[in-house]
Amino acid sequence: MIRPLSARILLVILMLTLAFSQAFATHFRAGEITARRMSLTSHIYEIKVTGYFDMVSGKDAADRQTSVFFKIGNVQSTGTPVTIEAPRIMPIVDIGNNTTMNTYIATYTFPTTGAYRISMEVDARNDGVLNIGPEPTNRLNFYVSTVLEINATFGLNRTPVLRNAPIDLAAVGQRYIHNPGAFDADGDSIAYRMFTPQQAGANGVGVNLEYQDPNTVTPPGQTETGGSPATFAINRVTGDIIWNAPVTKGYYNVAFVVEEWRDGALIGQIVRDMQIIVDDVRNDRPAVPPLPDICVEAGTLINQRVTATDRNGDRLNLTSASGVYDPTLIKPAVASFTVSGQGSQSSVTGTFVWQTSCEHIRLEPYNVLFKVEDAAPPGYPNPSLFRKLADMTTWNIRVYGPKPTGLKGVAATDPAGTAYRLTWDAYKCQIAGAKIAIYRAEQCTDIPDDVCSPGIPAGSGYQEIGRVDVDETTFLDNNNGDGLRPGVSYSYRIVVLFPRPGASPGEPGYLIGGGESIASPEFCLNLPVVMPVITNVTVDSTSTTKGVITVKWMRPAAAAGLPAQYRLFRATGQNGTAFTQIATINTNLAAGARDTLFVDRNLDTEANAYNYKLEYYTTVNGQLTKFDETKTASSVRLEQDAAQPNQIGLKWSALVPWSNNNRVHRIYREDKARPGTFNRIAEVSVQGPQTFSFVDDGTDQYAADGVVNVSIAKDSTYCYKVETVGSYNNSQIKPAVLYNFSQILCISPSDTIKPCPPVLSLDPLNCDSLQNIPQAFCNTIGFTNHLTWQYPQQAGGRDCDPLVTAYRVYYARYEGDTPTLITTITTPPSPLQTAYDHEGLTSFAGCYYVTAVNKFGTESAPSNTVCRDNCPMYVLPNVFTPNGDAKNDIFQPYECPAFVQSLEFKAFNRWGAEVFSTRDVNINWDGKTNGGKELAAGQYYYELTIYFESSKKQGTETSMKGWVQLLR
């Protein structure tokens, strides 16, 4: 039968329409790509995409999506990626919300190590997404990618897996929360950041879509509690995505990156593109309250109740998602979660049970997600029309190693000298590859037990001295063959270091991320003190020539009657090392002898601090022989510190072998009514480093010796001294508490005014005039930048310290680099120079700032940063004659093309065909094609893209077009 022409045309149109609609079938809502390494001897990985499909408008298309294609390419390469097919793994899972989950898996062996991008694209997204474009979303493909670092040191690494489906319902006007439930079976750290949804571009690289955060699609409304405007953000640490609160119903897609970190390095990142379905519902979301995070010892049975409620009386389903339920991700035993009254009550309680074990110890916490969804209450007229809502919370569980027990030690015979043999009980968690780390300190030291921060806390004074396998129970400490110092009271603790879950002991870095045990109880060798110990370096008198410092020490525990000798040395400055002997004190250590004190006189204690050490000599075979020397101890140095007007700032420090931390220091101010008399005005609790501070506003905060308040006047001078309070924290050293005075410091409020930042400028380059001189940058040994600045009288509404004694000039070659100090200008002293020539440069480009320094050494904030770029100097001729006469045979720039970083040159004939190209900075075109064929005489056109060296690392791009006459 022959159909009429109009019928045949209609049929063709119908078939084309059907094919077009199938090509743009709308079905993809959300998804991500994950991977895991399958062999330690090859780079073979299992790669999986988990896709979520819209069953409302794209069921047929979703059913036909029986496979997807991965594109895999090195991140640093611009070449064509490898394409592999991944079949769908049945069954398809209905996850509710008119969505199914499809899983596609393939294996691939990477050719070598490096960073690889794995991407997947599918036509098309489901229709009607409000916050992405530019086209209707059923005309946009769905694209996600994962960056995977292939590195032999990472072992059988797996990307995190996302346990919570990326489809949720949100309600207009109500706070919405989503958490991906990311779980890393290797114990790596996870972090999160927002990402722009993409569609596929060339070579498997994504191209950003036109995207808006969901809260900005329509005029922002209010948060659930009435705040304004509505907000949308992700928590970088927890991964909670909170939209507070939606305004307009519809579909919204957002994307975020799940970052995988190990030992401070980023080793992989997954992009998840997810969909939020907002509906205008007459329903309130249910609630599951947050649970406080816990830290438990391995072997603890966790039994936690979780309760969810609904104020509307809706029936609730309470579920939980985490890797702790999956035996493929953690070693048994796995956790369980059971709920009574599931799906039938408006208040439900679940019970989380997990028998932890030694295999579960790791540094990173285990994340457990609890999610509650409501359903139509009993008697609801049409349950299929009920719009359910959800709430969720994430609970963190950290599993730490038990505390080692039974640590003790005895003196041991060793060729190195003094040594101690340590022993301890067999450790209860015998994990393959675990290590016992041995720590030592030179005094008996208390440290806090913090189960959420296992190991040895930083700053405790302990240092690791060795490691043994976890099944060992002994260690010999001979100070690595050098022998220990005799008579020192050493303190020991041990800590167990665990491998990363799933790591092999032979892997590099296998202990990174595995976690630690609580430190063992201390074992301290309370040996008699056989060396003198300096206990005081206190300033008795402040003067430029008659200053006095008293140095005291504790006598060693030794038999009296034996001749001995102390030799005291002094160096100028707290860090001074140029020691000079200032006293020799002979002693027989007899009771009551005054042999532990020396008064050092005729010092400049006003200008200087002083550093002291003591050598101790004993009788050996009838001769005085040096036994040992003490650690150095400095005097307390008081200095001015920055403060507001009508206040005085003080800071002080002491470099001593005892601790001045965790003590209360005393501040004294001279009573002007009684010159020379100092009144205690404050007691300052100090915890941090060796430098401490206080700001005096005139108030006497210490009433026990009388209250003397003053009004701090700008032009008056006030005198201070500080008394530090410290201790060795060693019961054998007396006195237990050590008091030491600083020198007296007299200053006025104007002395403590911080210098203000200068205002910097650079002399401009006249590039226009230089371009008229092709040889402008020839035959030079270096370039110079001339800097000038001004120092303000006021800045930010406050006075600036007028007593500036120096300027510091900083330079960075590129924007974003950390500037380094290149000069300090201190001369002539008056007036101080406010200009500087930075000479000998290979380029003008760079960035500068300047700071001011006052007479007390206080440095201002940086000035404005000024960056300079080079003059783009590149001049080409318009004729060349490649005839072999050695004159003008080569087309190249005029002399000295300046500051060229890179270029790309292309020449075309009059018909637009490319005849020559090069990346040579000097072009060096000899009138031939790249294949060596001579070109005919005539006019040729060129395009030049050139990058000039600038203050930016990538250089400044300039495009040039022109013509050149080729003559023969």
Automatic annotation (TrEMBL):
Keywords: Signal. It comes from the Bacteria. Coiled coil: none annotated. The keyword Signal applies. Residues 1-25 form the signal peptide. This is Gliding motility-associated C-terminal domain-containing protein. It comes from Dyadobacter fermentans (strain ATCC 700827 / DSM 18053 / CIP 107007 / KCTC 52180 / NS114).
